[in-house]
Write a structure and sequence with these properties.
The protein is α/β, with parallel strands linked by helices and about 475 residues long. The chain folds into 3 domains: about 160 residues, Alpha-D-Glucose-1,6-Bisphosphate, subunit A, domain 3 (Alpha-D-Glucose-1,6-Bisphosphate, Chain A, domain 3), CATH 3.40.120.10; about 220 residues, 3-Layer(aba) Sandwich (Alpha-D-Glucose-1,6-Bisphosphate, Chain A, domain 3); about 80 residues, Alpha-D-phosphohexomutase, C-terminal domain (TATA-Binding Protein). The chain is about 40% helix and about 20% strand. The chain contains 15 helices and 20 strands. The strands form 4 sheets. Strands 1-2-6-5-3-4-7 form a 7-stranded mixed beta sheet, sandwiched between helices. A 5-stranded antiparallel beta sheet has the order 16-20-19-18-17, with helices on one face. A hairpin with a 6-residue loop joins strand 19 and strand 20. Helix 14 crosses helix 15. The longest helix is centred in the middle third of the chain and has 21 residues.
């Protein structure tokens, strides 16, 4: 069992001893620390109240954690807006829509059913910065509690932001509602027994899409491993074929990651989700620039040809961006790092290769709802099968390996050895070590996980065999360091 405190939030397994798992003691402690830092960051005049949005995914432990979080916020004198069952992007949007001072999302994202987590948001509905997140952790460790008196307790209200989120997606100028409706698409949706079963069918219905949903009960008892990887989506693939659907849609339990299945039952591959959406947006931006009689490179935000992803994401995004004459930038892994760089570079589109689409025109957070709206618009514009769209994208294979190794000293030695071994290549060490081999259009990236006690080794090349060969080469270096 585990309790992991990182840039990705406070994440742990339910039950067990405080400090080793996500227990009621830990939930109260970290929620209190969040409130303390909130008051320190935004001092308000006496009597003026703070407001925090709380949303949860469909996990079994969700209501228990929600009760503790809401109770702690109230006991700190903070007003609470309970969003109820709400996706991560819905809760992020709710902070903006309700003009709140922050938000707490109760979700462990793609982790199995025994996990839950607190994801902490700022007043922009974005994840706390690394520095602010660390300040919350430091505050929690001090354990100096001082709760509000009975006359200063916070108040609780409830508001369902689902339809407002849906409307915001439909209102995006790049989501072509009429095109999608005219196309008459049939899709199969797998929301893996969580909040995607609430919001996505409603979005698809609004867009005139015939939606067939499997694993639709919001029980938190996931029908399969909830990470939307091809190996976990066999049931969805079979359903796409069974119903002769145009597309299969898979999301994780909090609906911030998005993966597709082609009409022939084969995986579109989650790394291609962001790439396809970016290709669509850059093509539209080029047409806007052309209509304005300027080159795309002369365009500025929100039409600037700039994209951002993290170091562990596919090179295909860089290729697509450069195809349209744009610039690509890579950040350290972690959504807050991606969004920070998106803001800095005024990027048109960004995200992560795990199926996370960040479109800052609506909000700076991974949002599967936005990804669905944009991808369906892309399908309607191209008038091609999903497998044909996939075939037209840059072709790479990415291999994801891991070594279970929590000894920090050994991890540092492995990273140092890899960096030294490939010093003649292009090396980036802002987050672990990434080595780019430009001649072979391949790369390998080693880093500590933000959410698990492991070291991840991702490699990509034009073919799966080449990617695995590169991974094996680096894994051999790692095993030599640890004496295996």
């Amino acid at each position: 069992m585990a309790l992991i405190k990182s840039i990705s939030g406070i994440r742990g397994t339910i039950g067990g001893a405080p400090g080793d798992n996500l227990t009621p003691v830990d939930i109260v402690k970290f929620t209190y620390a969040y409130c303390t830092r909130l008051r320190q960051r935004f001092p308000k005049p006496a009597g003026e109240r703070y407001k925090v949005v709380v949303g949860k995914d469909g996990r079994i432990s969700g209501s228990m954690v929600e009760n503790l979080v809401v109770g702690t916020l109230v006991s700190c004198g903070v007003d609470v807006v309970k969003a109820g069952y709400a996706s991560t992007p819905t809760t992020e949007m709710a902070v903006i829509l309700s003009k709140a001072d922050g938000g707490i999302i109760i979700t462990a994202s793609h982790n199995p059913r025994q996990w839950n987590a607190l994801k902490l948001l700022n007043e922009k509905g974005e994840f706390l910065s690394a520095a602010e997140g660390q300040a919350v952790l430091d505050c929690a460790e001090k354990g100096d509690f001082d709760f509000a008196c009975v006359d200063c307790l916070g108040k609780v209200s409830e508001h369902d932001f689902t339809d407002e989120h849906i409307q915001a997606v439909i209102d995006l100028k790049d989501v072509e509602e009429d095109w999608i409706r005219d196309a008459g698409f049939t899709v199969v949706l797998d929301p893996v027994n969580s909040v995607g079963a609430i919001i996505l069918p409603r979005l698809l219905e609004r867009l005139g899409v015939n939606c067939i949903t499997i694993n639709h009960e919001v029980t938190g008892d996931f029908a399969h491993n909830p990470e939307p990887l091809p190996s976990n989506l066999k049931e969805l693939s079979e359903a796409v074929l069974q119903y002769h659907a145009d597309l299969g849609i898979s999301v994780d339990p909090d609906v911030d990651r998005l993966a597709f299945i082609c009409e022939d039952g084969t995986p579109f591959v989650e790394e291609n989700t962001l790439v396809a959406v970016a290709d669509y947006l850059f093509e539209r931006a080029a047409k806007v620039a052309d209509a304005a009689n300027i080159s795309l490179m002369e365009a500025t935000a929100p039409f600037a040809p700039v994209s951002v992803s993290n170091l562990s994401s596919s090179r295909a995004l860089r290729d697509v961006t450069e195809k349209w004459g744009g610039q690509y930038f890579a950040s350290a892994v972690g959504e807050v790092n991606v969004t920070t760089l998106i803001h800095e570079k005024e990027a048109l589109i960004g995200g992560e290769g795990n199926g996370g689409v960040i479109f800052p025109a609506i909000h700076a957070g991974r949002d599967a709802m936005v990804g669905v709206g944009l991808f369906l618009s892309y399908m309607a514009a191209k008038k091609k099968k999903v497998s044909e769209i996939k075939a037209a994208l840059p072709q790479y294979s990415i291999v994801k390996n891991r070594i279970d190794l929590s000894d920090s000293a050994l991890i540092d030695r492995i990273l140092s050895e890899v960096k030294e071994r490939y010093s003649s290549q292009k090396v980036n060490d802002i987050d672990g070590v990434k080595v780019d081999f430009e001649d072979s259009r391949s790369w390998v990236h080693l880093r500590r996980s933000n959410t698990e006690p492991i070291i991840r080794i991702y490699s990509e090349a034009p073919t799966a065999d080449e990617a695995q060969e590169l991974a094996d080469e680096v894994i051999a270096i790692a095993k030599k360091v640890i004496g295996q």
